[in-house]
C-alpha cells in the first residue's frame, strides 16, 4: 500500500442508533482513533436528532448527506438491504466501506477480514471490506493458530448465542416475557425467557439455518480452507451479551494439551482461562465489555484420533462486531493517503 500515516480521518457510522452502531462509537473513543469529522447516520426518523460522541454533540445525518460528504471511512451497521443499496455508492465516491452485515461476506472480490488473521487480503483496489458474523469472529481466532501449527481435519461447533445478536427488539421480547405480558413483541419463533431456541436466523438449505451456514462458509473463507469439513448448530440463549461456543477440532498432527495451550496463548486477541481445579473457565458474563476471545475447557477427545474440545467465549458486540470493524479501520488508517 502506498501512503503515509494518517493523523486524522473523516468517519461516518451508518446505523449509528443501533446496538452495533452505538458500540462502534464507544470503541472509537476507547481506542482513541483520530477523527477530524464524525458523521452519525441513521434512518429518516432519527435524522436531525443529536447524539453525543467524544464530548461533543453531533447532528444525525441522512445517507444522502453522508454520501455527498464523501467520508474517508464509513462503517455500515444497518443491515444487508442498506449495505447492498448504498455501499457501492459510497465506494464509488472514494469512501472505504466496512460492512457488518452479511451482504458482501461471500463475494469473491470482497475481503472478509479479521485483522489478526488476514488483513493482507485488503489490497490497493479494495473499497468494500466485510467484517464477519459475530459467532464466526471468535471461532476463527481460536482455530487459526491450530491450523497454522497442526492443520485442521474437521470442526464441529455448537453456539450459544446471546439475544443482543438479534438487536434491541430481542431484548424487549425477553423483558416482556419475563414480566408476564400477555402479548409480548415477537422476534423469535419461541419464548426466549427461561428457554433455549435451536433456531438462529431463518432456515435455509439442508435444514440448516442461515446463521449455521455463515459459520461454515465464513470460516472457510477467512482461514482460506475452502474444503474444510465443518458443521454447526446455532442456539439462541437467554443471555443479554456474550456468545459461547462448544468446539470439537480434529487436527492433522499429534499434539499435547500443553502445546495447544501454548499455541493458543500466543495468538493475538486470545486468552486462555483453563484451570478446572479453580473452576476457571470462560463465561459470557466474564467476556462482557472485553475485546478478548477467551478459550477454556480444553481437553482431549478420546473418541477420535488427534481431536480436542474447547469452549470459546467472546463479547459479540465488541470483537464480534464493533471492535473488529474499528480494527479494520486502523489497518486502513495506516495504509491510506489523505490530504491533510
Class of the largest domain, according to the CATH hierarchy?
A: Alpha Beta
CATH homologous superfamily identity of the largest domain: Dihydrodipicolinate Reductase, domain 2
Residues in helix, %: 25-40%
**CATH fold label of the largest domain:** Dihydrodipicolinate Reductase, domain 2
- Poorly predicted segments: 1-6
- Assembly classification: single chain
Query: What's the main sheet like?
Result: 6 strands, mixed
Strand order, main sheet: write it out. Answer: 9-8-10-13-12-11
pLDDT averaged residue by residue: 94
**Number of strand segments:** 13
Measured between the Cα atoms of the first and last residue, the distance is: 18 Å
The succession of helices and strands, N to C, reads EHEEEHEHEHEHEHHEEHEHEEH
Outline, from the CA principal axes? globular
| Count of domain modules | 2
Fraction of residues in β-strands: 15-25%
Number of helices: 10
Tell me what the structure shows.
With 340 residues, the chain is α/β, with parallel strands linked by helices. It folds into two domains: 9-131 and 321-335, Rossmann fold; 135-316, Dihydrodipicolinate Reductase, domain 2. The protein is 32% helix and 23% strand. The chain is built from ten helices and 13 strands. The protein has helices at residues 19-30, 63-69, 80-92, 115-118, 134-149, 168-178, 210-223, 257-265, 284-287, 318-335, and strands spanning 9-14, 35-41, 50-53, 56-59, 73-76, 96-99, 128-130, 152-161, 230-236, 243-251, 270-272, 293-300, 307-314. It has a six-stranded mixed β-sheet with strand order 9-8-10-13-12-11. A five-stranded parallel β-sheet has the order 2-1-5-6-7, sandwiched between helices. It has a two-stranded antiparallel sheet with strand order 3-4. Strand 5, helix 3 (80-92) and strand 6 form a beta-alpha-beta unit. Helix 1 (19-30) crosses helix 10 (318-335). The longest helix has 18 residues, at 318-335. Residues 1-6 have low confidence and may be disordered.
